[in-house]
């Protein structure tokens, strides 16, 4: 895996950014300096299509313009959060009667464990949700809950790749990169695709979570720091602020143009030049976007920014809203490691995790709604798998309070809101044990096809050629847009 | 676009085995092709179905898909295939409906079509199937994979161009010629010396070196330059960095949040550097890293520097992430071993053997039993049940006189320290008395006895009094809070303690070696772990070569326990085996790395994966010729480097040409040189050179890193003032040493290096990733370190505007190894003029005050920003 990650070639990065917005080509104009030497500006030879981040119209009507994905790596337990199965109480302590696939054979058991928390209906729609997610309950009428997700690849890595890149192997581009490739960004001053990571550490597979794969590197996600300053070096030194730095960048651009003439068609060099343009604009725009101090007390309280448990996640959700407001196309909020992977100690760990995330996640939906942004912003909350209805023993039979649940990728839940998704709707179902999705199954590729559809894109057509190969986010011929989810 | 796998280009004369891989027919249209089980269908089944229908003891539904014969026999549900008729084939029915593969990822449309067509065509096999199904575990197609065949002699292709005297150019020229192309002309001399200097030393050439090379008209000027650079100690530094990437060099445990440091790991780094500088033969270099401990005859002798070097070399096997100092379960130990094996196999063998830890490799003919046979070579040094954590593996080689010196200094420090502590305690006692004096007389004695009673068994009355008079505390507490009780005394003692620390700082380090050794009498029984789980051992295995290599005639005789050695001798025998001149992988993989570092791309583009899912060589004949030549001349690295550098291929211009670009935009055919971006270390090191700050000291303990107030990881140690974090002490001049010497803490990479793509070692890095992101631009524009370095650069220049040409030329040569042309000069001078005016107009009061005292400051500042701009430019950041 590491080899793949390291060897991903950086290529074809070019951009329509130019320095023009920060630097009128001051030096170039002076006395026709360059022109007098008889050379036109670099003209790339036989250049492949150049790539940029300017906003583009999708081929079809788009319901969604931006997306915020709250990715829950590890696999939140659908049995204990989203998918009530009254039958399981009768089976509690008895052996699971059918075939079951474990990830951790060494600690596997067949003993069924009923949901550990109570469910009750919420909202006018009566959506049944666990007592661990009361805030989600308060937006039940605004979301679609999918109880029939399925990737079928029973470990974190492949299933994570499946959910984000459409393929279960590493090396492909993630959804966010595809959206940039197809639609560009509404903002030329902020990174078009932002990954907000947890201060406790990077998610499993680190940078692969926002990797452009074979797409040009301009479509790579930008990971910002998990704490302030979110981006280093946004402040110019005092003596360079304003005109002094602009003059400097003009000289830089002129020097680089000259160098480029000797290397016509070298996209890396062009991408580097463009990155100075972005950097210059980011200095003011990004500082402002990442600074939540101007938000009202009411808003901050709603996101839980003023409480220890929710401070970090709340802050990141609030930043996500601010970014989308400012034209950023795709934001993903990531957890550290695989924190929802509750093989053990689920009784204590799951409530803790929910206490950090439930309130901020619900606040994000409420806030987008009250600002009129929810219709055009697709919100996603979910992981790459769910969990099994049976007990996994972490510490041996005598430590029953340490029990957990093993992986389940055959039937799990996630919720979505906005961007043209139905409101107060529950889609699909699993079998009586919440093991296999049996009705309205949504495969990872169906989900990705549906997202593309909401952005006005056709999953059969969205493709990228690299040399002799053609890549697609969704290349499963059986993939389909899940129309039942849509308004 | 060139398809590197297409056979038309591989027409030159090489041995038959290299041609085999060229007939990869994936590009053909399926319809026309006769499909066979072994070539077309089995790879799909192997990756997707064998896990349940053929591998190990498991045959779900009684169905075995390893042979066509067995499919026809079928399983519990009857025959699986009816050759010639997919509609009557149960297998096709289950696959088409996505019933199978069960749960797992489904087959793609293309894969299904392939299976369908194969059945329609009559379910052909390439050859009769073996009697015993176990003989069908690997197919001839897999075993014939190009990299498993032993090295054999390769003929140098004949070339049309008589001027071509270097065999490398013959191989490259031949393929270019076949594509109707010519190589590019030789690069300009000043760009060549810059390229060479970075490639061999990781540093820019000095103006003197540039001058002397440009004026050297002798025929062998280039060879002389190569020799000079090769003999520089910086060669070892530069090339150590390359190998340290492959070895996953890190100075912390990894795998856990706290990421404990490995303070002695740097000795391995110095070993690698020294080995390259001595030009140690690479076979010996590999043997020492795998089995240095087993090469020591008799007892370890702390006076024997050879022993020290051999033990240090085995640090190679200790580089991988290993969390067992933090969490020491069997699983954690098993993970540490697995990571180590990944490093060994990808760095030395170019194979992803690690993928067979839980089940047979999905692409390569490497079985789970192969993995555990490979692992058993290392088991005696890494026994899961008699595990030793990193600190327990350290070997103390401190010599007696040095140890005595350390003890003497410590005793001296201790004496001073004890004296300070005694006086501090007296002060604390005095404070305590003063606080007691404030207490009403009748309680004083009771309270005194309470705070002075070390047992802390207090009466109710004492407890109440302690609550009522919280200022009265035991002496130890008062010492702890001295800064609050009596700040001046606290500071006085802190100053004194600093002196103690200064004394201790003069203590020489103990010579602790992070080594891999075996414990006598510990020979674990190696077993295959079912699904990779160490709690589920199955059959016993003995050390052995991978089956795929054995079947290619590469067999190793590895002892279970060599009676002639105090150790088992397993690693030593294996190390000698893989460094035999005929071993198919070791030399090919190493030579490919060297090529990659010099030419910017490997002949095999996946240097850590020479297996079936890795890239095929662009120039297989060249790779084998280079490998053969390398082993035939004693595994001599510098000779190999010289060989490559003397080629025209290396010295070509990197400019893109329209004719090349049209046919070969990715430069697979090497019709030009590749433009390379400076790697993270070279960016920092060459900026230090430009600023005149580089401290060239070779080797030694690493420079510590810490987080500064802003959260950036920087060089230095955190200063503590009055018990609080306060700034960073960046160490006197040490901070300007080369990047190689900066502590490689996995969770805390130096911010500047991380910005420019320093790899994360999880567990190692085969190819440096390269990004172009705005944070790099922001670093050049705004980082305080960058600004500081620019100012230092400017200080070394006499920036007189009236006589600007000499210093401007000098500056360009220092930064770019080339002179500025007319327009460069004009641009720079205009910039300087205009920026100086702007700085004069800067109304900041402090600045205006400084300016009134020294009016030249504005120009100096403008000059500094000119330097900053020049190093931010692509001419600096890229190697043409």
Average of the residue pLDDT scores of chain B: 89
- Estimated radius of gyration of chain B: 34 Å
Determine the strand fraction of chain B and express it as a percent band: under 5%
Determine the fraction of residues in helical runs of chain A and give it as a percent range: 25-40%
Overall 3D form of chain B: globular
Q: What is the name of the CATH architecture of chain A?
A: 3-Layer(aba) Sandwich
Describe the main β-sheet of chain A briefly. Answer: 9 strands, mixed
Distance between the termini of chain B: 24 Å
Structural class by helix and strand composition of chain B: mainly alpha
Low-confidence stretches of chain A: 1-49
Please outline the major beta sheet of chain B. Answer: 2 strands, antiparallel
DSSP E strands of chain B, number: 10
The unreliable regions of chain B are 1-31
Mean pLDDT of chain A: 85
Please characterize this protein's 3D structure.
Chain A is an alpha/beta fold. Chain A has helices at residues 2-7, 26-29, 33-36, 78-81, 87-91, 134-138, 156-165, 175-183, 243-262, 267-290, 297-303, 308-325, 346-370, 444-454; strands at residues 66-71, 108-112, 119-122, 127-130, 143-150, 193-196, 222-224, 330-334, 377-382, 386-387, 390-392, 407-408, 412-417, 425-427, 429-430, 437-439, 442-443, 463-466, 469-472. In chain A, the strands form six sheets. In chain A, strands 1, 5, 6, 7, 8, 9, 13, 14 and 17 form a nine-stranded mixed β-sheet that branches. Chain A has a two-stranded antiparallel sheet with strand order 2-11. In chain A, helix 9 (243-262) packs antiparallel against helix 10 (267-290) and helix 12 (308-325) runs parallel beside helix 13 (346-370). The longest helix of chain A has 25 residues, at 346-370. The two termini of chain A are 40 Å apart. Chain B is globular, with a radius of gyration of 34 Å. In chain B, the strands form five sheets. In chain B, strands 1-2 form a two-stranded antiparallel sheet. With 880 residues, chain B is mainly alpha-helical. In chain B, helix 8 (189-201) packs parallel to helix 10, helix 11 crosses helix 12 and helix 34 packs across helix 38 (857-872). Chain B is built from 39 helices and ten strands. Among the domains of chain B are: 35-123, no CATH class; 248-397 and 516-580, no CATH class; 400-510; 679-755, no CATH class; 782-879, no CATH class. Chains A and B meet through helix 1, helix 9 and helix 10 of A and helix 30, helix 33, helix 36, helix 38 and helix 39 of B.
């Amino acid at each position: 895996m590491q080899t793949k990650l390291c060897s991903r070639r950086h290529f074809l990065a070019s951009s329509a950014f130019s320095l023009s917005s920060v630097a009128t080509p001051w030096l170039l104009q002076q006395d026709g300096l360059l022109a007098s030497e008889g050379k036109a500006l670099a003209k790339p030879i036989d250049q492949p299509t150049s790539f940029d981040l300017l906003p583009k119209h999708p081929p079809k009507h788009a319901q969604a313009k931006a997306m915020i994905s709250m990715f829950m790596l590890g696999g939140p337990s659908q049995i204990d959060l989203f998918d009530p199965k009254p039958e399981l109480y009768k089976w509690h302590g008895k052996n699971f009667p059918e075939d079951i696939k474990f990830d951790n054979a060494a600690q596997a058991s067949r003993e069924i464990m009923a949901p550990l928390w109570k469910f009750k209906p919420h909202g006018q729609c009566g959506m049944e949700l666990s007592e661990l997610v009361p805030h989600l309950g308060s937006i039940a009428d605004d979301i679609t809950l999918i109880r029939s997700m399925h990737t079928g690849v029973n470990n974190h890595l492949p299933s994570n790749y499946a959910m984000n890149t459409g393929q279960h192997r590493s090396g492909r581009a993630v959804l966010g990169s595809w959206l940039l490739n197809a639609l560009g960004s509404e903002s030329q001053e902020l990174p078009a695709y932002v990954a907000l990571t947890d201060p406790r550490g990077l998610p499993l597979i680190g940078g692969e979570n926002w990797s452009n794969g074979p797409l040009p590197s301009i479509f790579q996600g930008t990971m910002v720091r998990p704490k302030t300053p979110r981006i280093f070096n946004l402040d110019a030194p005092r003596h360079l602020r304003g005109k002094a730095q602009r003059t400097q960048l003009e000289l830089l651009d002129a020097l680089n143009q000259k160098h480029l003439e000797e290397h016509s068609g070298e996209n890396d060099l062009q991408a580097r030049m463009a990155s100075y343009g972005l950097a210059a604009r980011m200095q003011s725009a990004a500082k402002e976007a990442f600074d939540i101090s101007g938000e009202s007390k009411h808003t901050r309280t709603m996101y839980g920014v003023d409480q220890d448990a929710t401070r970090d996640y709340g802050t990141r959700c609030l930043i996500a809203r601010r970014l989308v407001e400012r034209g950023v196309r795709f934001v993903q909020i990531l957890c550290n490691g695989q924190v929802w992977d509750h093989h053990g100690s689920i009784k204590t760990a799951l409530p803790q995790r929910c206490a950090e995330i439930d309130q901020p996640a619900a606040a994000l939906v409420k806030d987008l709604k009250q600002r009129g942004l929810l219709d055009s912003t697709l919100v996603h909350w979910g992981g790459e798998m769910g969990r099994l209805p049976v007990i996994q023993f972490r510490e041996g039979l005598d430590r029953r309070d340490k029990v957990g649940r093993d992986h389940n990728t055959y039937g799990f839940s996630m919720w979505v809101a906005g961007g043209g998704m139905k409101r107060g709707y529950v889609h699909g179902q699993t079998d009586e044990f919440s093991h296999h999705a049996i009705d309205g199954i949504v495969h990872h590729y169906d989900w990705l096809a549906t997202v593309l559809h909401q952005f006005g894109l056709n999953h059969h057509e969205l493709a990228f050629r690299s040399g002799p190969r053609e890549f697609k986010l969704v290349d499963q011929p059986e993939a389909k847009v899940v129309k039942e989810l849509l308004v | 676009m060139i398809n590197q796998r297409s056979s038309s280009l591989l027409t030159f004369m090489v041995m038959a085995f290299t041609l085999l891989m060229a007939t990869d027919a994936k590009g053909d249209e399926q319809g026309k092709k006769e499909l066979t089980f072994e070539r077309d269908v089995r790879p799909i089944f192997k990756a997707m179905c064998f896990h349940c229908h053929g591998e190990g003891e498991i045959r779900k539904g009684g169905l075995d898909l390893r042979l066509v014969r067995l499919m026809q026999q079928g399983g519990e549900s009857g025959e699986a295939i009816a050759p010639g008729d997919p509609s009557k084939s149960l297998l096709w029915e289950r696959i088409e409906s996505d019933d199978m593969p069960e749960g797992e990822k489904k087959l793609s449309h293309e894969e299904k079509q392939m299976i369908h067509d194969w059945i329609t065509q009559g379910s052909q096999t390439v050859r009769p199937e073996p009697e015993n199904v176990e003989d069908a575990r690997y197919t001839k197609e897999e075993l014939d994979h190009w990299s498993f065949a032993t090295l054999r002699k390769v003929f140098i292709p004949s070339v049309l161009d008589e001027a071509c005297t270097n065999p490398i150019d013959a191989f490259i020229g031949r393929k270019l010629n076949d594509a109707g192309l010519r190589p590019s002309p030789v690069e300009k001399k000043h760009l060549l010396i810059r390229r060479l200097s970075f490639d061999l030393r990781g540093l820019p050439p000095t103006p003197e070196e540039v001058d002397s090379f440009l004026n050297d008209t002798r025929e062998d000027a280039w060879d002389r330059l190569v020799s000079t650079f090769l003999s520089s100690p910086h060669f070892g530094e530069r090339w150590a960095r390359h190998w340290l990437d492959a070895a996953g060099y890190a100075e912390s445990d990894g795998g856990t949040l706290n990421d404990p440091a490995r303070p002695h790991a740097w000795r391995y780094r110095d070993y690698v550097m020294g080995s390259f500088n001595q030009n140690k033969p690479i076979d010996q270099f590999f043997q020492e890293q795998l089995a240095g401990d087993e090469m020591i005859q008799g007892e370890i002798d702390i006076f024997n520097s050879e022993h020290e070097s051999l033990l240090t070399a085995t640090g190679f096997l200790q580089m991988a992430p290993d969390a067992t100092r933090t969490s020491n379960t069997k699983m954690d130990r098993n993970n540490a071993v697995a990571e180590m094996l990944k490093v060994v196999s990808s760095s030395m063998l170019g194979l992803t053997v690690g993928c067979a830890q839980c089940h047979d490799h999905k692409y390569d003919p490497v079985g789970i039993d192969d993995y555990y046979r490979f692992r058993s070579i290392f088991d005696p040094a890494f026994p899961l049940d008699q595990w030793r954590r990193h600190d327990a593996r350290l070997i103390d080689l401190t010599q007696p006189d040095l140890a005595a010196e350390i003890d003497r200094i410590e005793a001296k420090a201790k004496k001073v320290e004890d004296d300070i502590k005694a006086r501090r305690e007296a002060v604390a006692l005095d404070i305590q008395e003063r606080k007691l004096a404030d207490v009403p007389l009748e309680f004083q004695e009771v309270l005194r006895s309470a705070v002075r009673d070390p047992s802390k068994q207090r009466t109710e009355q004492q407890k109440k009094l302690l609550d009522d008079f919280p200022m009265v505390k035991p002496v130890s507490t008062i010492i702890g809070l001295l800064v609050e009780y009596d700040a001046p005394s606290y500071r006085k003692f802190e100053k004194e303690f600093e002196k103690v620390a200064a004394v201790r700082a003069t203590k020489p380090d103990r010579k602790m070696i992070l080594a891999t050794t075996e414990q006598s009498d510990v020979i674990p029984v190696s077993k295959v772990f079912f699904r990779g789980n160490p709690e589920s051992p199955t059959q016993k295995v003995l050390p052995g070569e991978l089956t795929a290599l054995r079947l290619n005639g590469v067999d190793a005789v590895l002892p279970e326990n060599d009676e002639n050695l105090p150790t088992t001798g397993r690693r030593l025998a294996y190390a000698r085996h893989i460094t035999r001149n005929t071993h198919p992988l070791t030399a090919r993989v190493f030579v490919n790395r060297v090529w990659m570092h010099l030419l910017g791309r490997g002949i095999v583009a996946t240097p850590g994966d020479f297996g079936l899912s890795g890239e095929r060589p662009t120039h297989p004949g060249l790779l084998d010729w280079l490998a053969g030549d390398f082993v035939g001349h004693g595994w001599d690295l510098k000779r190999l480097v010289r060989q490559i550098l003397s080629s025209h291929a290396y010295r070509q211009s990197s400019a893109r040409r329209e004719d090349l670009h049209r046919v070969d935009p990715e430069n697979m055919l090497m019709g030009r040189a590749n433009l390379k971006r400076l790697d993270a270390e070279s960016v920092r090191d060459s900026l230090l050179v430009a600023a005149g700050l580089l401290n060239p000291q070779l080797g030694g303990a690493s420079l510590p890193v810490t987080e500064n107030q802003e959260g950036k990881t920087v060089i230095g140690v955190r200063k503590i003032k009055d018990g609080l974090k306060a700034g960073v002490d960046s160490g006197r001049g040490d901070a300007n040493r080369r990047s190689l010497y900066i502590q490689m803490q996995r969770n805390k990479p130096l911010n500047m290096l991380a910005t420019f793509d320093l790899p994360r070692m999880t567990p190692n890095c085969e190819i440096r990733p390269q990004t172009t992101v705005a944070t790099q631009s922001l670093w050049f524009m705004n980082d305080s370190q960058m600004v500081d370095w620019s100012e230092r650069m400017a200080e070394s220049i006499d920036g007189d505007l009236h006589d600007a040409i000499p210093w401007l030329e000098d500056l360009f040569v220092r930064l770019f190894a080339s002179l500025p042309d007319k327009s460069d000069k004009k641009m720079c001078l205009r910039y300087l003029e205009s920026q100086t005016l702007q700085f004069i107009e800067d109304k900041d009061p402090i600045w205006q005050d400084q300016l009134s005292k020294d009016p030249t400051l504005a120009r100096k500042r403008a000059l500094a920003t000119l330097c900053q701009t020049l190093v931010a430019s692509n001419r600096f950041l890229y190697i043409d």
